[in-house]
Amino acid sequence: MAAPRRRWVWPVAVVTAAVTATTVAAIAADLVQERLTVGMTLLPDAASTGAVCLDGSPPAYHLHRGTGAGARSWLLQFEGGGWCNDAPSCAERAGTRRGSTRLMTKLEVFSGILSNNPAMNPVRRDGDLHRANTEFAQMFTDFYNWNRAKLRYCDGGSFTGDSIYTNGSSVLYFRGQRIWDAIITDLLRKGLANADKVLLSGCSAGGLATFFHCDKLKERLGGAVTVKCLSDAGFFLDLNDISENNTIRQFFSSLVSLQGVHKNLNRDCLNSSDYPYLCFFPQYALPNIRTPYFILNSAYDVYQFHHIFVPPSSDPRGQWSRCKLDPDACSTSQITTLQGSCYIEQTSARANALKRIGTSGMSVTDTWTAVRSVSLFLSRFGENLGL
């Protein structure tokens, strides 16, 4: 007799876990697995709809087919990789793999949440890790036989832009929204239209993209499909830096303007915000998202520490340089500043956003590690995600 299907339950949760460097290293060692490489699918016909990368090359994704019980389940993962917010930085990006599929690797290793290894178990069988129980491991291996697609990132605007910039004979295409539409259209023809469960995920800039497309995916797939979304290290904060300037607001404001992002942001958020670019911040967008959502983020996210809380412009004398390179080199006052402002404000911003919706969860990990996904193993992530 077939095993009963697990119901998708999504309780509200806010979990904080502390992970030592030794523990992280031990977990990472357990992630060694056989390499699954998946070929690239290019969409050359998408150019007819204007769906092209920064340099005009076609969009692309990698798809590994599901089997057995996972044949009608789909995991879609946005690739991350930062942003560009002005013509010079976007022109430079267009000449790299971040702005052109011509320069991307044509084979991608599918590991972690994209793995096809059913024996993979990230929870160790000893000590505290065993007490974290195997619920996450069970949830994690549940994805091994799903249809798993990695959406390549080549627009520089978290899959949201819709404009063109011209300067003489030079052209930059900001077509992230159209790239998203083209890829989903192609995947619908390949079985996504028959899905019963879909998880939309992404890391960093890809994690940010999930906030913009979570509800849109649900609307496109219809009410019969269960859709949930996961942002890994994508909760970028509207936060003053150590010099009391808001550098990230300036950055996102210019990005939204240059790339024509505002037309694709959440309407409810736009109606309640004074400036469109505020809706590029998850803390303002999240309360308007109706689809169940889970957030995974480090309280000491490396990108946010280096570029939002202590950007180069805020530290002209380089007093934070050693601390940014090595957390062990941070002074007592610097640690106090980070714990008092960075950690508290991040946790507060996420928690306040979640209070206004009743079908989401969050894990904020108190760790310096750059191996973001490893930290979620110690939270009851599987239980919160409800897979």
Automatic annotation (TrEMBL):
It holds the Pfam family PAE. GO terms for biological process: cell wall organization. GO terms for molecular function: hydrolase activity. InterPro entries: AB_hydrolase_fold, PAE/NOTUM. Keywords: Cell wall, Cell wall biogenesis/degradation, Hydrolase, Secreted. It comes from the Eukaryota. It is an enzyme of class 3 (hydrolase). Its EC number is 3.1.1.-. The keyword Hydrolase applies. Hydrolyzes acetyl esters in homogalacturonan regions of pectin. In type I primary cell wall, galacturonic acid residues of pectin can be acetylated at the O-2 and O-3 positions. Decreasing the degree of acetylation of pectin gels in vitro alters their physical properties. Belongs to the pectinacetylesterase family. This is Pectin acetylesterase. It comes from Eleusine coracana subsp. coracana.
